[in-house]
Amino acid sequence: MKTSQFANVLYAEGEAAPDFRLMEQLIDEKLIDVILYDVIGYGFAKWRELYQSLGKSGMLASPHAWGNGIKSNYIAHLGAAFGNTATIEGVTSYSDDVDLTEYKLKKGMLTPPDLPGFGMRLLKKDI
User: Fold this and answer.
1) What does the alpha-carbon distance between residue 2 and residue 19 come to, in Å, rounded to a whole number?
2) Cα–Cα distance between 98 and 120 in angstroms, integer?
3) C-alpha closest to that of 63 among 34, 38, 45
4) Which pLDDT does position 4 carry in this prediction?
5) Is 74 exposed, middle or buried (0-12, 13-18, 19+ CB in 10 A)?
6) N or C end of the chain: smaller count of CB under 10 Å?
7) Residue 81 domain-assigned (yes or no)
8) Is residue 78 part of a domain?
9) Closest CA to 46 of 80, 74, 70, 68
10) CA 115 → CA 56, 101, 111, 118, distances in Å?
11) CA distance 77 to 105
12) How many CB atoms lie within 10 A of CB 17?
């Protein structure tokens, strides 16, 4: 039997204006592998709850990061805490106001710092 070249493809949904009822159905029927709700739009507290339930079902998360330079950093913390993150959307960013240098990218793995404030130190006092 010939194996498809797409045998390891993960099906993901939920990035843009998700229909949450439909998403629940897709999750319940195991028709998708990865949830993509926006990390800020969906909410950090909701993501923490969702990560826990996804981990129990074997489903993966990949919170959406586009549109804000530090969303990828937030996702790195969620992934470090819960582990079932398929990938972190890499939105390259820099800031004159926030020090992001404590985040380390090595061999494709983004490691968040174990520091207060998500490890993002403010560089200016008037922010």
Assistant:
1) 36
2) 6
3) 38
4) 55
5) buried
6) N
7) yes
8) yes
9) 74
10) 28, 12, 12, 6
11) 13
12) 7
Q: Count the domains in the chain.
A: 1
Two structure tokens written together for 101: 């240098």
Q: Quick check: is 84 in a domain?
A: yes
Cα–Cα distance between 100 and 118 in angstroms, integer?
Answer: 10
Place of tokens 């709850």: 49
Tens of pLDDT, residue by residue over 58-102, are 899 999 998 888 899 999 999 999 999 999 988 777 888 889 999
For range 33-56, the mean pLDDT:
92
The structure's pTM equals: 0.83
**Within a domain: 68:** yes
Per-residue pLDDT reduced to its tens digit, 12-43: 999 989 999 999 999 889 899 999 999 999 99
**Domain enclosing residue 42, as ranges:** 12-96
> Quick one: CA dihedral 20, 24, 25, 31, positive or negative?
positive
Between residues 124 and 71, which one has the greater pLDDT? 71
